[in-house]
Design a protein that fits this description.
- This protein has one helix and eight strands.
- The protein is an alpha+beta fold.
- A hairpin with a 6-residue loop joins strand 2 and strand 3.
- The protein is elongated.
């Protein structure tokens, strides 16, 4: 009787294990499907937001003479700060020949936001934010400078004025 009872208990345990296996297999299928959907969405999002950014960057490049007029002339480019390896940032300016406008490009190569990031600029006035790769429009966290910032007469990086900006993580701000 003990052997028959043990066989019955073993059969019941085997049935339970098979049911659990079927449930796990079904859950794994759902998980695999969810991962595929997630990958598809991520691929879509990267293409969509990346396309938007490249379109807007190309529009800005055409519209802003400082970004294209002196492309092949050293007078069209100057480093503001290329030595900040501690924060992994680069900042440079671009100039055109047909307009006195100067464009500043600030890059943050880390996932750490840089609020209060001060950089030198050649003149006072309002510096408008023309493009921010961290904008929600491009799928970013939407950290930025509210459309621009006013320069202050605080010398920095060899320039007579400076601006204090929020430099978003893994972003380029123009």
């Amino acid at each position: 009787a003990n052997a028959i009872q043990a066989l019955a208990q073993g059969a019941e345990a085997l049935k339970t294990l098979r049911e659990q296996y079927a449930t796990l297999k079904e859950a794994a299928g759902y998980a695999r499907e969810a991962i595929e959907v997630g990958k598809s969405f991520n691929d879509f999002a990267v293409k969509r937001f990346g396309t938007r950014f490249v379109e807007d960057l190309n529009k800005l490049y055409r519209a802003e003479p400082a970004l294209h007029e002196l492309d092949c002339d050293p007078a069209g480019f100057a480093w503001i700060d290329c030595n900040d390896s501690t924060q992994s940032t680069l900042v440079y300016l671009r100039r055109g020949s047909s307009t006195p406008n100067t464009v500043v490009v600030a890059c943050n190569w880390t996932p750490v936001p840089r609020p209060g990031f001060r950089l030198g600029v050649p003149h006072g006035g309002f510096w408008r934010e023309l493009l921010n790769s961290d904008s929600a429009w491009y799928g970013g966290s939407d950290l930025g400078n509210g459309g621009g910032v006013a320069a202050q007469p605080i010398p920095c990086h060899g320039h007579p004025h400076s601006i204090s900006i929020t430099l978003p993580p893994l972003a380029v701000v123009i």
